[in-house]
Design a protein that fits this description.
The protein is mainly α. It has helices at residues 4-31, 46-72, 78-106; strands at 43-45, 111-113. The protein has a two-stranded antiparallel sheet with strand order 1-2.
Length: 121
């Protein structure tokens, strides 16, 4: 658990640096006239929600089963829990891929507009 704090701090710093570099690049493109200031509308994909939901369920299930195994078998360790979590997340991503292929073949993907612009009524 103690290792999560430095990893979280590193992830936050990396995210801020990437966002800053992206902003700088975009501003240079705008100055040269190669990009507009109009931003594309933000969209939320059903596929992303499904992916993150499956991953959350897989991790929760892996931790739950790992806790049961730890009570049953005293030799169960944290590396086994990590391995089980990786296996369950991998299985969740495979399931998501199969589901998205099936949805793509049958009709396509839905996206929802999250922009702040109000539609003409």
């Amino acid at each position: 658990m103690e290792a999560l704090i430095p990893l979280g701090v590193f992830a936050m710093i990396a995210y801020v640096v990437v966002q800053y570099l992206h902003h700088r690049q975009r501003m240079k493109l705008i100055e040269k006239g190669l990009a507009t200031t109009e931003l594309p509308p933000m969209t939320a994909s059903v596929s992303n929600s499904m992916r993150f939901g499956l991953i959350a369920i897989a991790l929760g299930l892996a931790i739950f089963i790992s806790q049961i195994f730890e009570e049953m078998f005293r030799s169960w360790g944290s590396e086994d829990t990590f391995a089980m979590g990786s296996i369950f997340v991998g299985a969740a991503l495979i399931i998501h891929t199969l589901m998205s292929r099936k949805a793509g073949a049958s009709g396509g993907e839905k996206e929802y507009d999250l922009s702040l612009k109000r539609s003409a009524e």
